[in-house]
Write a structure and sequence with these properties.
The structure is a single chain. The protein has 282 residues and is of the alpha+beta class. It folds into two domains: 66 residues, no CATH class; 210 residues, Fumarylacetoacetase-like, C-terminal domain (Fumarylacetoacetate hydrolase, domain 2, Alpha-Beta Complex). It is built from six helices and 19 strands. Strands 1, 2, 3, 4, 5, 6, 7, 8, 11, 12, 14 and 17 form a twelve-stranded mixed β-sheet that branches. The chain has a five-stranded mixed β-sheet with strand order 9-19-18-15-16, with no helix packed on it. The relative contact order is 0.20. The model has no long low-confidence stretch (mean pLDDT 96).
Length: 282
């Protein structure tokens, strides 16, 4: 299933994309929020599938609804750094990591599909990064690698927007990556039973229609079980937490000449099986 959170009046609802329609799961009593659906586990997904069958292709036109971030208030958003061989190769200062490296995106950085992202006055080096993410479905604490994959609810995309001049000034990773709306997420969550080969997903970034990044999760340094096992050995991962897996080569900072986003630009990140996450820079 492709699951979304969409605006409804002053609130939001959970839906499932079926072709060009969205079946309203909240009105049907499945779950009030994506977090509720994730926490409901298999029983929640079974209810959702039943509602979709009964809808028979009926629902709101996808083009007529406003998508929100699939999880509006995730407990944790943790991003893996230097986890693609190609990205390590393009960075002259990068060292191939011995252990996975992570940093956090905070709640005020979360943005939705089609949200406008403001160029902050503190940076002139606003960069993009397409990131494939796992959405945690069950609590993980010091798991074995065999326990990791069954605990994944599904997968989504995150644009790890970064202010490079801030990030690289005295290694200010947290501040350089957490300006408001620097973490667009979406457009949907694809459940793990539908996206069965997360280590073979093609990823792209387009800036004003021009391809900037074109890679595959097959290029990971650390596999998804290894990444999540390491992270869950440090901190407990909870249902609804989002963990990204790094970005492939092609970020603007390492292009020659460098390419940075500016007001008026349209940035799109895309993953096979998930779709396109699009935002405008203002």
């Amino acid at each position: 299933m492709k699951l979304v959170t969409f605006a409804a009046g002053r609130g939001s609802r959970v839906g499932a994309i079926v072709d060009d329609r969205v079946v309203d799961l909240s009105t049907a009593g499945v779950a009030d929020s994506m977090l509720d659906l994730i926490r409901a586990g298999r029983s929640g997904l079974a209810k959702a599938k039943r509602v979709i069958r009964e809808a028979g292709g009926k629902g709101k036109r996808l083009a007529d609804i406003r998508l929100l971030a699939p999880i509006e208030h995730p407990g944790k958003v943790l991003c893996s750094g230097i986890n693609y061989k190609s990205h390590a190769d393009e960075n002259p200062n990068a060292k191939m990591p011995t252990y996975p490296h992570f940093f956090a995106k905070i709640s005020t950085a979360i943005a939705a599909p089609e949200d406008e992202i403001k160029l902050p006055p503190l940076t002139r080096q606003m960069d993009y990064e397409v990131e494939f993410c796992a959405v945690i479905g069950k609590s993980l604490s010091a798991p074995s690698e065999a326990e990791v994959m069954p605990a994944i609810f599904g997968y989504t995309l995150l644009n790890d927007v970064s202010a490079r001049d801030v990030q690289f000034a005295d290694n200010q990773i947290t501040t350089g990556k957490n300006f408001d709306r620097f973490a667009p997420i979406g457009p949907c969550i694809v459940t793990a039973d539908e996206l069965t080969a997360p280590d073979k997903v093609r990823l792209k970034t387009r800036l004003n229609g021009e391809v900037m990044q074109d890679g595959s999760t097959a290029d990971w340094v650390f596999s998804l079980p290894r990444l999540l096992r390491y992270l869950a050995s440090v901190m407990t991962l909870l249902p609804g937490d989002i963990v990204s897996t790094g970005t492939p080569a092609g970020v603007g900072y390492f292009k020659k000449p460098q390419v940075f986003m500016k007001p008026g630009d349209i940035v799109e990140i895309e993953a096979e099986g998930i779709g396109v996450l699009r935002n405008r820079i203002v």
